[in-house]
Amino acid sequence: MSGTHIEMRGISKSFGAVTALRDVSLDLPAGSVMGLVGDNAAGKSTLMKVLAGAIQPDRGDILIDGEKVSFASPIAAREAGIEMIYQDFALVPELTVAQNIFLGRELMHRVAGVPVLDRAAMNDRARELFTALGLRVPAVTLPVLALSGGQQQAVAIARATGFDARLVIMDEPTANLGAPAIEKVRETITRLKKSGVSVIIISHRLEDIFAIGDYMMVMKQGSVVGHREVHDTESAEIVEMIVTGQDPRRAGGVPA
């Protein structure tokens, strides 16, 4: 799979009198991993929801491989290869693992000329996805409510990456997970990167980004504080930027 260059230019968004995003720009080279960090209400999730088509910006542009695009809905973003894994995973607990993966994209076949769900094909394809990703669940026929948090995360990742994703956005992917599950998520992100899929991670866990990321962008109060290459910074500098809203490598900071 060839990589995809993602850009956001001058994205602004207000909700009434509240400015959620102020002239935010992002540049994600093809096949790379970016950590998006900042305190609560920094605008991280809002920015990613704009990229995923869940929120429409007031101003600004999104470009994929240099061409402007606009997404009226998450479905439109998904058709362009952009998938977002929300912090709550957005799974349906009562449905099986395979049914969750194919929710809204069900495989069908005909019985006596009547289209019906092809459950066997979806189960087989779901197993193939988990094998390809190096992820495990007890069985794809189990309801999601029977799975652990780490296993539910695996289902969400399989769903996001199983349909030619070019960019996967993960909102706090390692929150509330134990050490083995965190390592599995890191391995999966690394595998996605090697296959040419770009990844953006919203996270408060800087150690995850330093372990597997290429780039980091710090936000505060809806604005960009600064950008860093992971190999060219350290945790103390990033924490300072998050707390103060100032980039120590340039004058000025986030406007009040």
Automatic annotation (TrEMBL):
SMART domains: AAA. Gene3D superfamilies: P-loop containing nucleotide triphosphate hydrolases (3.40.50.300). Residues 6-246 form the ABC transporter domain. GO terms for molecular function: ATP binding; ATP hydrolysis activity. Keywords: ATP-binding, Nucleotide-binding. Signal peptide: none annotated. This is Sugar ABC transporter ATP-binding protein.
